[in-house]
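Replying to the earlier thread about multi-chain prediction with a worked example.

Input:
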Amino acid sequence: MSESKKSKPTKKKITRPISIDHIARIEGKAGIEVHHDGKNVQVSHVNIFEGPRYFEAITLGKPIEEATAVFPRVCSFCAAAHKITGVQAAEKAIGLHPTGQTVSLRELLYIGDFIESHALHLFLLAFPDFLGYPDAFSMGKDHPAILSAGMAMKDIGADIQTIIGSRYIHQENALIGGFGKLPTTKNLEKLKKQLVGIRNEAEQALETLVSYRNWPEVDAERMHLALEPYDGTYTMLGNMVHASDGSKFKVDAYKMRIKESVVEHSFAKHSHYKDKPFMTGALSRYVLFGKNMTGRAKELGDMYIEHLDANNPMSNNFAQAIEIVHYVHRAEEIIHNLLDSYKPLEKRIIPQITKAGTGVSMTEAPRGMLAYTISVDKKGRVKGADIITPTAMFLPILEDDLRRMSEGMLQQGIKDAKIIGPKLETVVRSYDPCVSCSVHISEIK
Amino acid sequence: MTTSEMRDEGKENIYDTAKCRLLRKYDLSEQDKLFLFRFEDPEIAMNWRYGPGQFVTVSILGLGEVPISICSSARTMGFFELCIRNAGRVTSQIHKLEPGTLVGIRGPYGNGFPMEQFANRDLLLVAAGLGMAPLRSVFLYALDNRWDFGNITIINSAKYGNGLLFKKELEAMKDIATAEDISIVQTVTRDPDFEGLHGRATTHFDKVNVDPKNCAVAMCGPPAMYKGMFEELIARGYDPRYIFVTLERRMKCGVGKCGHCNIGTATSWQYACKDGPVFDYYDITSIPGLI
Amino acid sequence: MGVIDGCAGDCRPRVGVYALTSCYGCQLKLATVSKIMEIADTVSFESFYMLSSASKMPADVDVAFVEGSVSTEKDLEELFEIRKHSRILVALGACSVNGGVQSWSEGEMNHDQLHAIVYGEEKIGMKSLQATPISKHVEVDYYLPGCPPEEDEIMYFISAFLFGTFPEPKDYPVCAECRLAGNPCILIERGEPCLGPVTTAGCKARCITFNVPCIGCRGPVPHNTAWFDSLAMTFKEKGISEELVRHRFRIFGAHNPDLEPMLDKIYKGGK
Amino acid sequence: MRYVKISKQDTYEFLERLKKIGTLYAPHKVSEKFYDFCEVDDVKDVEFDYQRTIRPPRRFFYPEREVLFTFDTHKVELYENLPSKEKQILFGVHSCDIVALRTMDSKFMDDQPDPYYKVRRDNGIVIGISCVPDEYCFCNVRRVEFVDTGFDLFFHELPDGYLVRVGTVVGHKLIDPYEGEIFKEVCPDDVENMSKFEEKRASMFTTTGNWDTLRYFMEMRLDHPMYMRESEKCLGCGNCTLTCPSCKCYDVQDIPSIDGRTGERIRYWDSCQFRSHGLVAGNHNFRETKLDRFHNRYQCKNSYCKDTTTSFCVGCGRCTYFCPAGIQFKENLMEIAGYKGGTT
Ligand SMILES: Cc1cc2nc3c(=O)[nH]c(=O)nc-3n(C[C@H](O)[C@H](O)[C@H](O)COP(=O)(O)OP(=O)(O)OC[C@H]3O[C@@H](n4cnc5c(N)ncnc54)[C@H](O)[C@@H]3O)c2cc1C
Ligand code: SF4
Ligand code: SF4
Ligand code: SF4
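Result:
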């Protein structure tokens, strides 16, 4: 972080810039740029320096199976999310219906991603802020229990993904039509045992967070969007998007409803719903569907309800912590149900592509809604691909929150960039942005 | 040789090493250093024997093991010298060792030169580059047992003057040499500034003081040198039964197990470490692929 | 054993972890190896933005791990800076070693065309470049391939570095590891286009162990021993179309200069 | 030699009892076309009819990767890491593989024994089983289709069970406790059946004759065009050598640990089909090209193993069966030697 000398004043009036070149402890390369005149903020940008990788363009003309192998490479923190969403879109495009067991295993794999991603975000990236350390290594020296709980959560998330997906980053075992090899009963049982053993650690994040209050400066009413869980519970798969204003739309219509635009300062595109910025992610999910939670997650959610302020983005951390608890239990349940009638030799449905088609799929990635549209021609080659990632969706509202935070501080008479800067970083971090993700958004013209 | 078998019988694990302390190191050239080692265990130090042309493996824990020819006189008790070129991962670390450091040594391995067969003959030793290392051991052996051999010629060659190994040591021997019927020839091939002889070993056969009919030849250098030398020697009437060369191959075990140093073809399959590294004229000319 | 030159075993080696254009998976892998806390004790992370606010750019370091391909002018500038301030530079992962998936369309479309497809007419301030491996621009001291790299190889590298050396490189293919793992060969048995025979070993045939043909994420075997031509001939005999073979070889190998001539040799009868 | 008989049903019982002695490994079907030696969990999974396993039995005595020593650089000490003396029982080994194990012994045990191999071999029990050849098999021309040493027990298939030859003291001790119970006396019918089986088996080999001249022809035709033609197809993947029951090449590496002080000295199977097999310092390679490496294997495999009076190649057919490029070792050798027929 440094006070930039380069940035030119945007108006004749003296403006003071607060500029952070490289926000640490987030996934990807982004900076913050805020210009103010001591009272009001004129500019508030999240600058994204991530280079473009053009996923939608490089996959054009490639066989769909190869393309779905490449999509998870959009992002390492949510590789499974991209894999599953991509595969689902591809399956819809070619008219393939996966078996129930495949869907359950995919959900379990996805949960592995959630637990790992949330654990990494909370324990390695966010907590050092709250506890006053530059990084988890130094935090771990003073708070070994917190760190080891985080590592244990990350490990179980990684183990689930490794056993089902082949590894926890870029899972090759999830394919169109099923899996190359199914986990053995023994391995599933092993996972279940691990999950049961980890219930206490799962609550560690909540316990750490309860002593920290959300900053009121970023309080503001906002629109939340989240995917309705397919089975009326609380999970990441579904077909209908709900908004906190009561409106709904089917995922197939996302391109009509969520508008994208290119902005000057980054390779990322920004999204709006009903011409307004909106929020997506753990908090939005909790706000819209938290009522469906059961058991321990529900108890804890009810107990700490004031930490789950729908109007404050910092509550996203808390919502993630609740989700960890929920997903640990849900994973146990899924394994339990799977084992009831497990078919370890079930064959993958080999895709037979005979006609062209387009498929749309949306899921809730750890950071929020993730949308894929894939078109294939009758030879099974990708004709068009469109990916909108959660970070692209929440960037506009994040920029608004940064403006609110800065203005709030200025009103309190705090003008020192060295004090405001880190606070802004913390706000950014509470969204858990995934910058490498955000850059591949496009519309096929 | 038999000594190596004796030693290995006493030891349980043929891959285990014995500790040796580095006592001194000298620069021989920009890339080559001479290292003097002594066994830590007096028992081993007193009983360790080797013959010229044999090699040991030097083990630097964490990096690996490399085969290196012994270049000192077979007479020294418990001491031995290695001349090592800085050629890669392990050897570059050996070059950094300070006197006093311990390393692991296994060996001696290989057949070595058949010194008993050489007895009562003149000796012609032809070395190119690093090839001087094993031949120095042969040369010192001959000096130690001077009465067993006739006239001796040693041809030491290198590309550049500063790459002539043991140049000073050989030069210092000049006076004794004349008295002892030893001809020392040091020559370079690519160094116009070198003050001394120029050209390949074969160009200096006029300085050779041995009788071809009753001479044993030992050579060590790049395989490319051997072909030319063979022709030259045969043409000059040297007895092919007494022409020996050493070969280099990749080696990981030194005892004929790891398979890397395999040479030969279906009827003559051999291991350079165990069946060699010293081979005679007939091996080399009858088995394809050795050089 | 003297650990690092001029350090005599007392000081902690300084390490920097940097990303160019990538998915951050290699850093994530490095950050999540099971012995990360031991590494953090042994070395000092001078720059590791993903994990630490106490990061500098550029930092003077003994080892720099660079993830990602060079895909913008800013990447290139940063890479030069990193090189200048690092004693040893390690290419971490497929993007950095071979250009990664983002170079899949190299030679098919240039980046202006790619840009137009994704962003249309609209211009963006930053200038993008064709994704290239970092070795194209700076000297690289060591390569850790993989998408993402394997934990044991990362650990081996760091430990070897502490011993003042580099790991011995692997110059054999995944195919060998696959047989050692006792896997049935899916190329022989099912005729599926597995890239195991041309891909650098190290993953212990991870995918094939899951019955999934290798897509070559660890990149071609080094030292010109990736025999794309022989494998293409085998694929051809099994009736796999040239198009599929080419696309598959190119996912992680598009930047390999040997690839196209070798494919042409098989499919166009060239030399 | 001692001969006994066991019924098919009792064989399972015998396997159960073997499991109590140590870890039992036997052939299992691992996919549509492939078999491998696996640890026996359920004896019903054991395959008695199979042609060849993916991994050769040598791996039980000489594993793909093992730690030879651990070390401490401060003390400059190597600590031997010998394997445990736990019993390993290999059931269902074909005669070719048994001879291959003997070629291993000749390399690893006969002079300067390799202690790691020796411990495992001394604690290993090898039980052979008869087999019928497929088109890849040529153990007959290698003269190893029938073994008389190298096994503790050898099971010969009969219509109603197995005729068991007892090869060693260890073998006797395996039989003794169950003599009369599950092991019965052999009757003349059984001998008749065994000889019928052998006769039928002999007629099934697609290659016949005597290959003793092969290695001489190979030497006199070192530049045979076959090498160039076939090595072009070769992928350099090493499957041929890694699945070979008599390949023994290994590499050694020191793997240091993160404490900067300790580590492991490991060895793992190498292959002459890999570039680094012949590589030395200064980037000089004694087997520079794919052709050189390909050539090397053909020479090595057909060289003479004096201690077993056969070539190192025992004709198991693995290197052809598991070659992804479909390179036909047997056919190529016949081409070099000029052996026309034998192919029925
Ligand atoms: C019989 C024999 C005698 C030798 N005598 C000497 C000598 O007196 N002085 C000297 O300087 N060198 C000698 N060498 C060569 C020396 O062994 C190599 O220079 C050394 O192994 C290089 O190891 P490195 O790790 O430094 O090189 P790298 O190139 O980094 O080698 C990596 C690995 O390859 C193997 N390797 C590389 N080159 C060779 C090689 N030539 N032989 C065997 N294995 C190799 C080693 O296992 C080594 O660990 C001899 C070699 C042999 C076979
Ligand atoms: S098998 Fe291939 S694709 Fe899979 S991890 Fe290994 S190199 Fe990567
Ligand atoms: S040299 Fe090759 S063929 Fe011979 S044993 Fe070694 S790996 Fe096998
Ligand atoms: S298995 Fe076949 S392709 Fe692989 S190295 Fe051997 S001969 Fe070559």
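Chain A is about 45% helix and 15% strand.

Feel free to reuse this layout for your own posts.
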